[in-house]
Sequence to fold (231 residues):
Amino acid sequence: MDEPLIRYKDVYINQQEQEVLKGINLELNKGEFVYLTGKVGSGKTSLLKTIYGELEILSGEAEVLGYDMKRIKRKHIPELRRKLGIVFQDFQLLTDRNVHDNLSFVLRATGWSNRAVVDARIEEVLEQVGMSGKGYKMPHELSGGEQQRIVIARAILNKPDIILADEPTGNLDTETGRKIVELLKSICATGSAILMSTHNLNLLTDYPGVVYRLENHQISEVTAEYNIFSR
Fold:
């Protein structure tokens, strides 16, 4: 069996000297779709931030794609992030350039230099997220759902092993949110593991996955509560 892509064992996380999470045990395996649930302030975003090196780990064992996150050097974090796709709730698109240039910026920043290859990859991901032909649009010309599709396109440009999605449906209406999860599910089926935080519990039964709940600074797997497969 393949090694887990993420393996946290008895991990403690502090932020500004305040305890956020304690005794965290979490695994993410190839091809899995995993939900992080919990109330606002329960630590979902903080946990995701430790995975891409934005927040330090206080103690415990934490491995992400072979990197020891307890000891990772700052110079190696960009290398790790190139292997991750990150989907933010608030999109974080560059507002001064169109969709194509937003995506081109990421590819060039991660080492792509051949213009024809860059253009071909951009067309490929736009088609995958249902936004083919929208490369000329500016972010402000897109709906919230369309912007989130572009953010997902940006996240999959480098065919990452893991996609971290932080409340990707949080700013969207119910139907648009469901379509975004369907899109993430289809990407998961192509090989990327998905770790998605959400407070929308209806999604958990409609789009099954492994479910973890964050509560009282701790984490527990609660997949069985949603009548879906248990590992």
Observations:
- The helical segments are 44-51, 77-81, 99-109, 115-128, 144-156, 174-189, 202-206.
